[in-house]
Structures are given as C-alpha cells and as structure tokens.
Recover the amino acids of this structure.
C-alpha cells in the first residue's frame, strides 16, 4: 500500500547560522531541520510551531512558506514537505530537544559550510534544498496555505 506523509519543516537562521537537529533513524544519526508529521486535528502552520517546540524547546514564529517539496522516498512512500522560514521569540535561548522527544538527540546552530560538509549525514535530499531555496529568497505568504476546517457534513 502506498503511503503519503505530510510533513513540515522550519528554516531558522540568525547571523548566517541555521538550527538543525540530530535525529535517531533506522539508518543511524541524521541531520534535519526541526521537522515532523502533521498530526490529526492540527493545521500545517500549527504543526510547524509544535515540531520546532518539541525538537528545540524554542518558540518559532512562521513568517513565510519557502516551498512545498515532493519526495519519493521509496516505491511505496512519498513525503510532501511544507518548509517555512520565520523567527524565534528569544534568540538568546539555546536550542535543545524537549524531554519528551526521544528521537531527537541534539539541536544546535550550524554554518552553511558545516551543513554542506555534512550532506551524507542529512536525513534526506530535502534538507539542503530547503536551505538553498531560502537563501535564494523563496518567500511565499502564509495565506497560500489554506486551512479548511472539518465539518460534520458527510460527503457520501
């Protein structure tokens, strides 16, 4: 059965440094933006704020959509990633995973050069591509992400 996963990610940059997290995966430790799956009952923007809080203990304020990425991971698995850029409410606070997030072991600031040198350790090809698109100036207004609330009306 084919699975499609809707995920979100955050580009957080300050002084030419970016926050990345180290994830525990089946393939070992991998670098990623603060990112994760959209959960049932939340919209896409709520999901990115929650994921950043869980993986970095920081409050992320989404400002722009950087892009929407389609990634065919395997024949049976597709990821659709909504990548956002934005700011933090407190840049003096050090990023660190929340105690409840066991899959993220570290969150810290990286230079672009450090990120580029770690490409084999990225969670996927999307990690660097999101940063490149952000640096290229991709900025779409948040209102392009339209949330249509659920209704109690059956479509059958």
């Amino acid at each position: 059965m084919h699975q499609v996963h809707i995920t979100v990610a955050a580009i957080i940059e300050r002084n030419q440094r970016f926050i990345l997290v180290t994830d525990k995966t089946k393939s070992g430790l991998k670098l990623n933006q603060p990112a994760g799956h959209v959960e049932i009952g939340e919209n896409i923007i709520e999901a990115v704020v929650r994921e950043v809080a869980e993986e970095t203990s920081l409050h992320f304020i989404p400002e722009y959509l950087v892009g929407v990425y389609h990634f065919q991971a395997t024949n049976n698995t597709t990821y659709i990633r909504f990548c956002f850029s934005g700011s933090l409410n407190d840049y003096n606070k050090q990023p660190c995973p929340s105690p409840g997030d066991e899959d993220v072991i570290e969150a810290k600031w990286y230079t672009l050069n450090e990120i580029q040198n770690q490409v084999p350790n990225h969670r996927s090809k999307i990690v660097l591509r999101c940063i490149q698109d952000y640096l290229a100036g991709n900025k779409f207004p948040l209102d392009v992400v339209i949330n249509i609330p659920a209704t109690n009306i059956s479509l059958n």
In short: Residues 3-144 form a domain with the Nucleoside Triphosphate Pyrophosphohydrolase fold (CATH 3.90.79.10). Residues 44-56 form the longest helix (13 residues). The chain has one domain: 3-144.
